[in-house]
Design brief:
The protein is an alpha/beta fold and 402 residues long. The protein is built from 20 helices and 10 strands.
Length: 402
Amino acid sequence: MAEKENRGDSAKEDDQIVNPWEVSAKDGGKIDYDKLIDRFGCLRLDESFVRRVEQLTSRPAHVFLRRGVFFAHRDFNEILDLYERGEKFYLYTGRGPSSEALHLGHLIPFMFTKYLQDAFKVPLVIQLTDDEKCMWKNLSIEESQRLARENAKDIIACGFDITRTFIFSDFDFVGGAFYKNMVRVAKCVTFNKVVGIFGFTSEDHIGKISFPPVQAVPSFPSSFPHLFSGKDNLRCLIPCAIDQDPYFRMTRDVAPRIGYHKPALIESSFFPALQGETGKMSASDPNSAIYVTDSAKDIKNKVNKYAFSGGQDSIENHRKYGANLEVDIPIKYLGFFLEDDAELEHIRTEYGTGRMLTGEVKKRLIEVLTELVERHRRARAAVTDEMVDAFMAVRPLPQMFD
């Protein structure tokens, strides 16, 4: 099945808006991912990809892959083809540093990218778009730069291999070969095109309109001569949430016109807010999210008080009718973070038939999230400023393909 490239704009219809800065559904409804795939023109990631990844890497697929958290792609099959032929690729992902602490939704792409780096043994570039957040949020340049370093500590705490990983902030790195590629991209994208893709209006300042090439060009190896000199044909795979797709639809449209390969993408659904699956967590509402800085008590209180339940309104009715698993947030969160497939299926069965109560499911979720957050907190506490400097140093990675 061929990809339907550039089917138009960021998904903005009467019933849902999905772009890099806003995710919402009409009347608080759910995001329709089938409609989003059709609208964006990407392809669904089916079970055959999961089996093929396991065969090629000789390791179990990540929980996010086998449970469909990463559900859509562009050219992921081509990446697997070249890897099977003994060729390599590189990974590119990023973070817009707009808050002091990350919530669990922010960790999803980094947890998955670490798995890809380990499984395929390939290099990784991580872009911190401190310039973007300065332009979109009410942040000074200095504050954006400070948040970039703080967020870098959380990213490093995910366990990336420093011999294969380069983290950079736009304010510090943009220039030279990187900037040349930005200009090449910018010359190929008309004002009408960028308005159509991103929905910019006449009220948006020109900084926003000129930003997309900055996020585009890390997908070209020539943007990093200190890493990939002489490897201009190296393919790039981008793990990201599907709201970032408009950037890379633009990139894929431009790439062949300036002599580069199109980047491939593997895209995730949104991590739902505690209050229900109506989009993604909001950093502006601390009770909508579990943060990596939350204490065990915070996690327990948030899950018990705010996690939307699909259970019935009384124990009698719950025993009789069972839970609605389609809307139950504790079940959805366990689907992301409970590693044991058998245990998850057992909980789903027992809860769905009413034999397990909401309180029991929430108790198990609290245990899983507390362990995850505590593990991350310990790892982050060990990340020093010197380690951040080392990951962000402009240097060759001589062992990156070993």
